[in-house]
Design goal:
- The protein is mostly helical.
- The chain has two domains: 1-162, no CATH class; 165-251, no CATH class.
- Helices cover 80% and strands 2% of the residues.
- It has helices at 3-36, 38-46, 61-90, 96-134, 146-163, 166-175, 181-186, 188-202, 208-232, 235-250; strands spanning 54-55, 144-145.
- Strands 1-2 form a two-stranded parallel ribbon.
- Helix 1 (3-36) runs antiparallel to helix 3, helix 3 runs antiparallel to helix 4 and helix 8 crosses helix 9.
- The longest helix has 39 residues, at 96-134.
- It is flat.
Length: 251
């Protein structure tokens, strides 16, 4: 390896270190802020449970749950900043025309993530909690640990929020020429199957209704991704991709 390449590698490593440190500091700050408002956050997270009585049975359970809630909330608050540093780190690999799209993507990343969290909070969590709490309640009295409840809810909120980033990611990749709308459309059947598999992983329940509540918007988001990719992709990419798919179908 030449000295220039060594210096380039060293510069990238130093930049990675710098951005990681800044990201950790930002996450620490938002986590501390979330800890200060933890009681209000708890009230918001518990509301979809429908007034069930939550308990804790371990000495350190409430402390660990406070930290879990603060960290999850801190991650949500810091996510746009974390994504910004990630995109800035990989931006040197893009040409100058492509770098401007990074700045256009950033607001949409935050918007779609918040949209996913809101969708999960109002649409997914209430029926999921109702099913889990009432299932078998005629046999035994449910006494839900607050740590377990918070784990389930925060996992749902974060997972669905991240899944809602799909249109933003595919639109960005289509704009810089990595993928195309035709390629996405050719993978539609596999995407539908994957949507139901992912919904089975995300949702804590086994009933098809709650899983469909997750799978349906995933499929809609995928169709939206195809449409957005077609809207923004480069003309030359469309022609090349069309030719490749035609050749693949003939073979």
């Amino acid at each position: 390896m030449s000295d220039d390449k060594k210096m380039t590698l060293l510069a990238h490593l130093l930049e990675l270190k710098s951005r990681l440190i800044k990201s950790v500091i930002a996450l620490a700050i938002t986590t501390v802020i979330s800890f200060v408002f933890a009681k209000q956050i708890f009230a918001v997270l518990i509301r979809p449970a429908g007034g069930i009585n939550l308990i804790y049975i371990e000495v350190t359970e409430m402390l660990s749950t406070y930290m879990k809630v603060s960290l999850a909330s801190g991650f949500i608050l810091a996510m746009p900043y974390l994504v910004y540093h990630f995109l800035m780190f990989v931006s040197p690999a893009l040409i100058s025309k492509e770098k401007k799209y990074v700045y256009l993507v950033l607001p949409w990343i935050g918007l779609m993530f918040i949209s996913g969290v809101i969708f999960a909070y109002f649409i997914l969590v209430p029926p999921a909690m109702k099913f889990l709490v009432t299932f078998g309640s005629d046999i035994a009295t449910p006494q839900i640990k607050i740590g377990n409840y918070i784990s389930v809810v925060t996992r749902l909120l974060l997972a669905v929020g991240l899944v809602f980033e799909l249109p933003v990611i595919t639109t960005f990749l289509a704009r810089i020429g990595v993928i195309s709308s035709r390629w996405l459309a050719s993978k539609r059947k596999g995407a539908i199957i994957f949507a139901f598999l992912l919904s089975a992983i995300i949702t804590p329940t086994m009933d098809p209704i709650n899983q469909t509540l997750v799978a349906a918007p995933l499929i809609v988001l995928y169709e939206m991704s195809i449409w957005l990719a077609k809207l923004v992709q480069k003309k030359e990419i469309r022609e090349v991709t069309s030719s490749l798919i035609t050749q693949d179908q003939k073979s």
